[in-house]
Design a protein that fits this description.
There is one protein chain. The protein is of the alpha+beta class and about 300 residues long. Helix content is about 25%, strand content about 25%. The chain is built from seven helices and 18 strands. A five-stranded antiparallel sheet has the order 6-7-13-11-12. The chain binds uridine-diphosphate-2(N-acetylglucosaminyl) butyric acid. Uridine-diphosphate-2(N-acetylglucosaminyl) butyric acid binds next to helix 5.
Length: about 300
Amino acid sequence: MGPFADLADIVSRDEPMARHTSFGVGGPVSYFVEPRHWRELQVVYRRSWGEGLPVRVLGRGCNTLVSDGPHRWVVIATRRLRWFRRRGRRIDAGAGVDLPRLVASAEAWGMGGFESFAGIPGTVGGAVAMNAGGRHGSIADRLVGAVVAFPGEAPRWMDAGELGLGYRVSRVVGGRPFLFSASFELDRASPRRIGQRRRSIVAQKRATQPVGARSAGCVFKNPPGDSAGRLIDKAGLKGARVGDAVVSHKHANFIVNRGEATAADILALIELIEERVRETFGVRLELEIEVWTDDEERRRYGRA
Ligand code: EPU
């Protein structure tokens, strides 16, 4: 176990990231760690830095494309940081709590607002980091603040305003600082009303997106005033494929792994889309998903 010999119950070696990403791709990482509390997290960070091992933070891997590797990284998975509680109109939740679980609990408690995020997969940490959302609002609308830890420092509270949440972006992207837990404020509402709204949002999503397919949600951000899905569609790219990576017929801003796609297939398809949309419309699409590559791969693919 190298630097983590005494932490065998929370560390796996050579763990394939394909098991931990919604695309179902990604090569093995040297150490996959699932800390249960702040002290373990601190030890993992300290030792990783001591060994010169790059650290990356993962929620449910719903918005991340991990390259085929192998990778000499430490991946810290937040999923065991999964406590949550209710205080009046507030909910405090650990970074690893599944967002759908929180949506369901808020509804049962008669706390409205979170149903806007129905059908969005992922964890609290991931949702805050990328300010997840859609046409019904984004996490920023409900976030009061978060407990975060900067490298080498003790965790501290930051108000939502300090967290730099914008369109699919925040200061906590990439685990620096590490988001430990987040607090949200909701409205009082009847579970029945919340349930009605949730069902209509989910139905709308199912009608327009490949829900349940192996994807990472929208691949590109919407350019100002337009929709990436519309542009990709109009460029004639629905159904375009590289290996088993395919542009969804239902929503062109989704790439779906139809079976045995590799990260290289998905990256090649991303490049093809970028080029075609640039040639056709003169628009430079920006990635919404996070791509994890090594230095060498970065040179090969020309992206971070
Ligand atoms: N459109 C097409 N073809 C397509 C897809 C969309 O012509 O293949 C058109 C639609 O008809 C519509 C317009 O493009 O006129 C916008 O499409 P849509 O309403 O589906 O919304 P979107 O802008 O593509 C955004 C978020 C989604 C979120 C939906 C619904 C981004 C990049 N995407 O999509 O978020 O679910 O609104 O709220 O902000 C995600 O972040 O992973 C994601 C899926």
